[in-house]
Design goal:
two-stranded antiparallel sheet; four-stranded antiparallel β-sheet; Alpha-Beta Plaits; 6 strands; alpha+beta
């Protein structure tokens, strides 16, 4: 099963440049997951100021360029894993957050663990 991990943080509280030690530890964690054959993709995302929001509301499509000031948090990075269970996804996500806790004191953020739906999941949708 595939799991998408979304890292959310306030863009204006990121605390400047992340410490180099943090990047080194994230790289080690990524190497371990890659060698295990479970990390499919990962990347950081540009700030919301460089993004665009396309919204369908009230039957109309609107396009708005960032930044999106009403958002308290933004998705700042993601990782896609191939894992056996949600528990395993939570384990890897917790390890990632512990690296931030240890190597970037004061930083705060939220990781959201979401299962990527496959054909078997659509069969369970109510009609």
């Amino acid at each position: 099963m595939r799991y998408l991990i979304l890292l959310k943080a306030a863009e204006n509280q990121m605390g400047g440049t992340p410490p180099p030690e943090l990047f080194a530890e994230i790289a080690k964690l990524g190497e371990e997951a890659t060698k295990a054959g479970i990390l499919l993709d990962t990347a950081g995302l540009t700030p919301s100021a460089a993004g665009t929001r396309v919204q369908l509301e009230g039957g109309k499509i609107s396009v708005v360029d960032g930044p999106f000031t009403e958002a308290k948090e933004a998705i700042v990075s993601y990782a896609m894993y191939e894992l056996r269970s949600q528990e395993e996804a939570i384990e890897w996500t917790t390890r990632f957050m512990r690296v931030h806790q240890e190597f970037w004191p004061g930083w705060e953020g939220t990781s959201e663990v979401r299962k990527v739906m496959g054909p078997e999941d659509f069969a369970n949708f109510p009609e």
